[in-house]
Amino acid sequence: MTPPDRPRGADTGDGLGETTVVHLLRHGEVFNPTGVLYGRLPGFHLSEAGHGMARTAAAWFAEPARLPAVTHVVASPLQRAQETAAPIAAGLGLDIATDERLIEAGNQFEGQAFGVGDGALKHPSNWWRLRNPWTPSWGEPYAEIAARMLGAVHAARDAARGSAAVCVSHQLPIWTLRLHVEGRRYLHDPRKRQCGLASVTSLTYVGEHLAAVGYAEPAGPAGKGQVGGA
């Protein structure tokens, strides 16, 4: 797939058109007692703490001073994203739209206990899949993730012209999109992603021009070990 054009993160546009904000919300904490990389596997739902994060995010979006107001809520089809979107939509009296393009990134280690610093990189059986971190060779290419996420964001922007949309997605897709719009390279250290649980990455558009990128953590800063995951 041809990589999408890279808009400039600081582009203020031509001064014309309505201001629209697309908030990319990462889902809350997932119940995962065995510590597997769950990826797109079904059946992984929010933990009790995760539901609390979703309610906190819902209250944050519903604040009267939170302008522009949210008029559109869309989520990844995965259970944890739908559960995170539910209190937001309910609190605002909106329906939840589903966009497959917001889904978690594909990963060949799905279902395995595999994480940064756990020694998996030392196993010869994994070396072939880890041969190219630029693509990456173990999963969905970063350029494809960025392209589909940008498509989902543009659709949400068009649905919420002059107001705000909330797109509930997953850590790697959100972070890849942010790298893309800010013109940064895709290769990165997963431990340094600014995309904590229930965090909000906000894209502000003037017309169709990206004017600013913001970040907030309504549920508080991610604790140790919480930045990783899906």
Automatic annotation (TrEMBL):
<dbReference type="GO" id="GO:0016791">
    <property type="term" value="F:phosphatase activity"/>
</dbReference>
<dbReference type="Pfam" id="PF00300">
    <property type="entry name" value="His_Phos_1"/>
</dbReference>
<dbReference type="InterPro" id="IPR029033">
    <property type="entry name" value="His_PPase_superfam"/>
</dbReference>
<protein>
    <submittedName>
        <fullName>Histidine phosphatase family protein</fullName>
    </submittedName>
</protein>
<dbReference type="GO" id="GO:0005737">
    <property type="term" value="C:cytoplasm"/>
</dbReference>
<dbReference type="InterPro" id="IPR013078">
    <property type="entry name" value="His_Pase_superF_clade-1"/>
</dbReference>
<dbReference type="InterPro" id="IPR050275">
    <property type="entry name" value="PGM_Phosphatase"/>
</dbReference>
